[in-house]
Amino acid sequence: MFCTQCGERLADTARFCTACGKPTFGDVSAAPAPKKLRRVLAERKLAGVCAGFAEYFGTDLTLMRIIWIALLLLPPHIGLIGYIVAWAVLPAS
Ligand SMILES: [Zn+2]
Fold first, then answer.
1. pTM score of the predicted model
2. What backbone torsions phi and psi does residue 57 show, to the nearest 5 degrees?
3. Separation of CA 10 and ligand 1 centre (Å)
């Protein structure tokens, strides 16, 4: 990334510009949009919960579906209640 004040090239992890001292944090234009957990209706099979979790955790959608099904089938069966809760509370987009 580059300093927004003086244009000095900075390490991506730098919190202050090495040339002028301007803080790099708080500059929303330079930071990627924060990931939000959501339901992805475009890729949904049912409610988009699996697609949303796969997107949030950066995992494969198929793998996420397998994990959900495993949580659903294996004791203590938290998959069903988890899915219903996620369905109810997550924003759809
Ligand atoms: Zn600077």
1. 0.52
2. -90, 0
3. 9
State the distance from the centre of ligand 1 to the C-alpha of 19, rounded, in angstroms. 5
Other CB atoms closer than 10 Å to residue 82's CB: what's the count?
A: 15
Q: Where are the domains of the chain?
A: 1-32, 41-89
Residue 79: phi, psi to the nearest 5?
A: -60, -45
Structure confidence by residue, pLDDT tens digits, 56-81 = 889 988 888 888 889 889 988 888 88
CA of 45 to the centre of ligand 1 (A): 48
Contact 39, 52 (CB under 8 A): yes
Per-residue CA distances from 3 to 13, 25, 31, 65, 66 (Å): 12, 11, 12, 42, 44
Q: What residues sit around ligand 1, an ion, with C-beta below 5 angstroms?
A: 3, 5-6, 8, 17, 19-20, 22
Q: Give the number of C-alpha atoms closer than 13 A to the C-alpha of residue 80, restricted to the C-beta side.
A: 6
Q: 83 CA distance to ligand 1 centroid (A)? A: 47
